[in-house]
Amino acid sequence: MNDTTVGYLENVRQDFESSPFWKFAGLQTQKLEEGDVELYLPYRPEYDNVRGTIHGGMYMSILDTTMGMLCRSLGTSDVMTIQMATQFLKPVIQEAVYSKASVINRSRSTALVEGKLFNENDEMVAHCTATFKLK
């Protein structure tokens, strides 16, 4: 990785980590490399829904953020989620989660991205695909 790429990725990290949502949610960057992003979300009781499991909106938020950061890591200065489809595979009860993303297909103006969310036992608890507008 060259110095330009390292500097760019540090700017991406700062953009995300300084956002109000990032701070509110308590997200943590585990890995940020060109085309390789992993985020971590420590458990907080405030994430629980009425069933005592982490709310699906938190699943979707961490996945959307991970996939957006992945798109930015590829050198895109601005990204916007166009659509996102999520499959909830397993509930998470009082556990931290982590997420990973990968690009399925990319054109000049859009990217189709896959996101996966895992519990502390490395079991996939949600899977999604999303289309991002790239600028």
Description:
With 135 residues, the protein is an alpha+beta fold. The protein has helices at residues 3-17, 20-25, 56-73; strands at 28-33, 36-41, 79-88, 97-106, 110-118, 124-134. 29% of the residues lie in helices and 39% in strands. The chain has a six-stranded antiparallel β-sheet, with helices on one face. The two termini are 23 Å apart. The protein is globular, with a radius of gyration of 15 Å. Helix 1 (3-17) packs antiparallel against helix 3 (56-73). The protein is built from three helices and six strands; from the N terminus they run H-H-E-E-H-E-E-E-E. The model has no long low-confidence stretch (mean pLDDT 96). Strand 4 and strand 5 (110-118) form a beta hairpin.
Which features would summarize this protein structure in a list?
135 residues, globular, 3 helices, alpha+beta, six-stranded antiparallel β-sheet
Helix content: 25-40%
SSE pattern, N- to C-terminal: HHEEHEEEE
Strand order of the largest sheet: 1-2-4-5-6-3
Structural class, from helix and strand content? Answer: alpha+beta
Largest sheet: 6 strands, antiparallel
- Continuous helix count: 3
Number of E-type strands: 6
Low-confidence stretches: none
Shape: globular
Question: Could you tell me the radius of gyration in angstroms?
Answer: 15 Å
Task: Give the termini separation.
Answer: 23 Å
Return the average pLDDT rounded to an integer: 96
How large is the share of residues in beta strands?
A: 35-45%
